[in-house]
Amino acid sequence: MGYMKHLFLVMVMALPLMGDDGKKPKPPEKNKLTPKQVADLFADDIGTWRCKGKSHLIGVDPNTGLPRKPVDEDMFMTIRWKVEGKSTEALFTVKINNKDVSFVGVKEYDAKQGVFIWRLKGEGLPEGYTRETYDLKTRTFHAKTDYPDGAKEYGTFQIINKNKRLFETQVKKDGKVTFWRKATFTRVTQDQPDDGN
After folding, report:
1. What is the mean pLDDT of the chain?
2. Which end of the chain, N or C, is less packed with Cβ atoms under 10 Å?
3. Within its chain, how far is the Cα of 47 from the centroid?
4. Are 54 and 73 in contact (CB under 8 A)?
5. Mind spelling out the 3-state secondary structure of 86-118?
6. Number of C-alpha atoms within 13 angstroms, CB side, residue 75?
7. pLDDT score, position 2
8. What does the pLDDT look like over 164-185, one tens digit per residue?
């Protein structure tokens, strides 16, 4: 049960909660973006998004003894500036074990390494992070995460247009897929929510 809960949390909207140890090789120079490119990518994410798709934790349900089936998912994510032009903050809630759990994610760009860093904290859960590179030609973020148990996650988040994004990820362990998720992000509004300030 703990593994399932952990794996689910890792998969929340392609934003793994446990990740690499930060000792990744330096990416090639071609992956580095200018400050304007970074600010534009962040600005394009500001707003509220509906995230609709499916996920599948592959294996047998320990409670029923039956194979697990894909699950429909539908949620909203609000993205606003953390520091204008430099970082964003995402707010969303997901159900975990039939309880609503609020999450806050912060995304920033590490110009020295040429990667985006996404830090995610769920209510009552440990903080985690993942690293992403961005391909200007395909307009796609690419993420790879290595887990302590030997599992590896590979994900993509492709910008289709100003109002639509496609997300896909899968986790493999010992050469077998153990989890996958596919979702479409559709912009609901570009308005930044009132944060009380």
Report:
1. 83
2. C
3. 16
4. yes
5. CEEEEEEEEEECCEEEEEEEEEEEECCCCEEEE
6. 21
7. 42
8. 999 999 999 999 999 999 999 9
Question: Cβ distance 107 to 88 under 8 Å?
Answer: yes
Surface-to-core class of residue 78, CB atoms within 10 Å of its CB (0-12 exposed, 13-18 middle, 19+ buried): middle
Distance separating alpha carbons of residues 5 and 73, to the nearest angstrom: 16
Q: Under DSSP, is residue 169 helix (H, G, I), strand (E, B) or coil?
A: strand
Q: How confident is the model at residue 18 (pLDDT cuts 50, 70, 90)?
A: very low
Do 185 and 50 contact (CB within 8 A), yes or no? yes
Which pair of structure tokens corresponds to residue 129?
């992070």
Domains in the chain: ranges and CATH: 2-21+31-189 (2.40.128.20)
